[in-house]
Amino acid sequence: QVQLAESGGGLVQPGGSLRLSCEASGVIFQIFALGWYRQAPGKQRELVATITRGGISHYGDSVKGRFTISGNFTKNTVSLQMNSLKPEDTAVYYCYTDAARLGGRAEDWGQGTQVTVSS
């Protein structure tokens, strides 16, 4: 199993910025993709951004142009720079990996970090 340690959440005013970070640890043979998803109260979990080992990134429509994902597949870390934050970005943000690890290839999730955008 992969352990994912997230950091960087908190309270920020609308228009502000936050940076989320996540480090994967455990018996990992290769990570194929890293990313972030989020879940707001009463809503389904949705894609924020992912990045593949080959450097291809995907963003949810609501964050395009405001958020930037970066991944380090040597250090097994992923970061999410969030700019121009809006109240509708308020959610629990979950780190995600798609990796070959002990037990086979699987997706793993972090515990989540709260991001609140409010004045």
Description:
By secondary structure, this protein is mainly beta. 0% of the residues lie in helices and 61% in strands. The chain contains no helices and eleven strands. It has strands at residues 3-7, 10-12, 18-25, 28-39, 46-52, 57-59, 67-72, 77-82, 91-101, 104-109, 113-117. The strands form two sheets. Strands 2, 4, 5, 6, 9, 10 and 11 form a seven-stranded mixed beta sheet that branches. β7 (67-72) and β8 (77-82) form a beta hairpin. The mean pLDDT is 96.
How would the blueprint of this fold be written?
Elements: E1 3-7, E2 10-12, E3 18-25, E4 28-39, E5 46-52, E6 57-59, E7 67-72, E8 77-82, E9 91-101, E10 104-109, E11 113-117
Parallel strand pairs: 2-11
Antiparallel strand pairs: 1-3, 3-8, 4-5, 4-9, 5-6, 7-8, 9-10, 9-11
Comma- or semicolon-separated keywords:
119 residues, mainly beta, 7-stranded mixed β-sheet, 11 strands, 61% strand
> How many β-strands, per DSSP?
11
**Main structural class:** mainly beta
Largest sheet, strands/sense/barrel: 7 strands, mixed
Measured distance between first and last alpha carbons: 39 Å
Low-confidence stretches: none
Quote the average pLDDT: 96
The ordered H/E elements are: EEEEEEEEEEE
* Multimeric state: single chain
- Overall outline: globular
Number of helices: 0
Radius of gyration: 14 Å
